[in-house]
Design brief:
- The complex is a heterodimer of chains A (285) and B (322).
- With 285 residues, chain A is α/β, with parallel strands linked by helices.
- Chain A has a six-stranded mixed beta sheet with strand order 5-6-7-3-8-9, with helices on both faces. A four-stranded antiparallel beta sheet of chain A has the order 11-12-10-13, with helices on both faces. A three-stranded antiparallel beta sheet of chain A has the order 2-1-4, covered by helices on one side.
- The radius of gyration of chain A is 21 Å and the shape is globular.
- Chain A starts with a strand and ends in a 6-residue tail after the last helix.
- Chain B contains 16 helices and no strands.
- Chain B has one domain.
- Chain B is an all-alpha fold and 322 residues long.
- In chain B, helix 2 packs antiparallel against helix 4 and helix 7 packs antiparallel against helix 9.
- Chain B is globular and about 70 Å long.
- Classes of the chains: A alpha/beta (285), B mainly alpha (322).
- Chains A and B meet through helix 2, strand 5 and helix 3 of A and helix 1 and helix 6 of B.
């Protein structure tokens, strides 16, 4: 299958920072990719490059289009939700649905209205009268009614309460995602999307520092809880990270031999957030 | 085409206050002021023992009027009819000025540009739909409102005069409502051409400015004008500094005001043209106004407008905030 996104040598500099530093990656169809990195690492820039919202150097192909020059064609196949509240404040629910229905060739009005019926939104309500959670509900209803091949989510649940956050990802999985669709998501609430991701990409200082599917992550990384007497042995194996819990040490290893680890203590698959913290150590130092 | 229609409709939704309500409110205020003036005149007239003009009964006056007098009465009624349009035009000019300045800036400031850009619409269509809203949608609504208000105004005047014994129908036949309506409607395409450089300049600033588009839009031409004046740069071309102020500064800002082309010296209107009973409709009749199509000022402005709008489209694509 053709990759949905193919990037090679992406480069983008703002005045005195490098947002993307010769980044190359591929995203295959039917995946849910988490693009995760600290603030200012270049996540949003990467997404904006994919969406044709910013200029860059290097080669980038999204569904066969060059996003810089073919954004309008590309957007028939790509949907985008940015961090909350980018819907214009003056628009009414009815107007938003009418407008998208008439300018987007792949929009299914009935589907959108069915999604809206599940919310408290009313047709004459304006965006400025809505809470953040309701704005996201409206945006999600619009986006899910579009039969797109790529959905890009940039911090979609920022500032939402936990009910809206859970509902957001649940709707996406149950009513939207299938093998023909691809989702790229960035978020700081890693724990919440951990179980839905199929691929993981860590970005730091404009570079991709980890690009693997979740199974590979589980094979490659391991967390071992070691009692104090064996801690020194573990330290000699060059763990990525070490932390103390209840007098025991927890070590995070990259590519260490399973059998050796199991001999030292209880081996677990590390959580994405622990892996993230270990990988990004010293970012802000 | 369908997309373009919906884009313009979106502009109307967003700017209903400026495009629709501003001319309506202006027109209604104009009517209310007129009615108050009429009532005041009636009250004053009644206190002084009846409303007389020139000591004669009005109907007698009309009965004794010759053809030239009748023409002048008709001209007066025409002025009554289009006077509302004058005020509404001015308000529309202000609305279009600020609409253009905000058109490509406001959605970047509140980040809703990200939403609009996530739809399959080219930057060219987006910008052109805003141009069309500025030079067609806003003036069409203004003209329709102006015509309705003008007719109401004419009817009110006629009714008041009829209370003083003047035959309403005779009066109305003296006025030229259809000629006025035709002139006003036909002025819209000319307005679009004349306003092009200002609309282009304001929208370029709107697409380009990272903040305060109004300040940039005004400061750049004004500072340029001051430099030109101080250093006498226009002397190089054997032109006075005033040329720059009139043809660059004023054109880039004030051409959005309907009717400014009448004052811009494109016409050689001599006394003979006006002598047709001094009817103001001559001034706004297409036969007169469209002679501006022969002036290079108009077409150079259109060319500049096209270039500026192309610049706005380019900045709409590349301007990358936050």
């Amino acid at each position: 299958m053709n990759a949905v996104v193919t990037a090679s040598g992406l480069n983008k500099r703002y005045k005195n920072t490098t947002a993307l530093d010769h980044v190359s990656f591929q995203i295959q169809p039917g995946r849910i990719v988490g693009l995760i990195g600290p603030n200012g690492a270049g996540k949003t820039t990467a997404l904006k490059a994919i969406l044709g919202l910013t200029d860059f150097q290097g080669h980038l192909s999204v569904l066969g289009f060059d996003p810089r020059t073919q954004r309008d064609k590309l957007m028939e196949q790509v949907c985008f939700i940015a961090d909350v509240a980018v819907l214009p404040r003056w628009i009414r629910v009815r107007e938003a649905v009418d407008f998208v229905a008439n300018v987007h060739p792949r929009f299914n009005r009935a589907k959108c209205e069915a999604f809206l019926a599940r919310t408290k939104l009313t047709p004459n309500q304006r965006v400025k009268q809505m809470s953040k959670g309701m704005i996201v509900q409206l945006h999600l209803a619009l986006v899910m009614a579009i039969d797109a091949r790529l959905l890009v989510l940039d911090e979609p649940t920022l500032g939402l309460d936990i009910l809206y956050r859970k509902q957001f990802y649940q709707s996406l999985l149950e009513d939207y995602f299938d093998e023909n669709k691809t989702i790229i998501v960035t978020t700081h609430q890693v724990e919440e999307i951990e179980h839905i991701l199929t691929d993981l990409m860590f970005i730091r200082d404009g570079k991709i520092v980890l690009d693997a599917d979740m199974e590979a992550v589980g094979d490659r990384f391991a967390e071992v809880m070691v009692s104090a007497d064996k801690a020194d042995t573990a330290r000699q194996m060059k763990p990525l990270d070490e932390r103390q819990v209840f007098g025991k040490s927890i070590f995070l290893f990259d590519g260490a031999d399973r059998a050796t680890l199991e001999a030292m203590g209880e081996v677990r698959r590390p959580s994405v957030s622990d892996l993230f913290v270990a990988t990004m150590k010293g970012t802000y130092a | 085409m369908k997309t373009f229609y919906w884009l313009v409709k979106r502009e109307f939704w967003e700017n209903r206050g400026g495009f629709l309500w501003a001319p309506i409110v202006t027109g209604v205020v104009f009517l209310v002021l007129n009615i108050m003036a009429i009532i005041a005149a009636e009250v004053v007239g009644a206190r002084h023992g009846g409303f007389h003009i020139g000591g004669n009964n009005l109907q007698d006056l009309i009965a004794n009027a010759d053809a030239k007098d009748m023409q002048q009465i008709g001209a007066g009624l025409d002025i009554v009819m289009v006077s509302a349009m004058g005020l509404i035009s001015f308000v529309t000019g202000i609305v279009v000025l600020f609409y253009c300045l905000g058109s490509l800036y406001d959605d970047r400031r509140d980040r809703s540009a990200l939403f609009w850009k996530s739809l399959p619409i080219s930057n060219t269509s987006t910008v052109l739909s805003k141009v069309a809203s500025a030079v067609f949608l806003a003036p069409i609504i203004a003209v329709v409102v102006g015509i309705v208000i003008g007719i109401v105004q004419l009817v009110i005047f006629s009714l008041v005069l009829s209370m003083h014994g003047v035959n309403v129908w005779q009066l109305l036949t003296l006025a030229h409502p259809f000629r006025a309506i035709g002139s006003l409607l036909s002025s819209i395409p000319l307005y679009a051409l004349w306003a092009a450089p200002a609309v282009g300049w304001l929208m370029l600033c709107s697409a380009w400015a990272r903040s305060k588009p109004f300040l940039w839009a005004v400061a750049v031409p004004v500072v340029a004008g001051l430099m030109v004046t101080w250093f006498g740069i226009m002397g190089v071309f054997n032109l006075p500094a005033a040329w720059f102020w009139i043809n660059i500064v004023a054109r880039s800002l004030f051409s959005v005001f309907p009717g400014t082309h009448l004052a811009a010296g494109n016409y050689s209107l001599n006394a003979a043209d006006l002598s047709e009973a001094h009817n103001p409709l001559v001034l706004i009749s297409p036969a007169h106004t469209y002679t501006a199509l022969a002036s290079p000022n108009l077409w150079i402005g259109v060319a500049a407008g096209v270039a500026l709008i192309a610049g706005a489209i380019w900045f709409r694509r590349v301007r990358d905030d936050n």
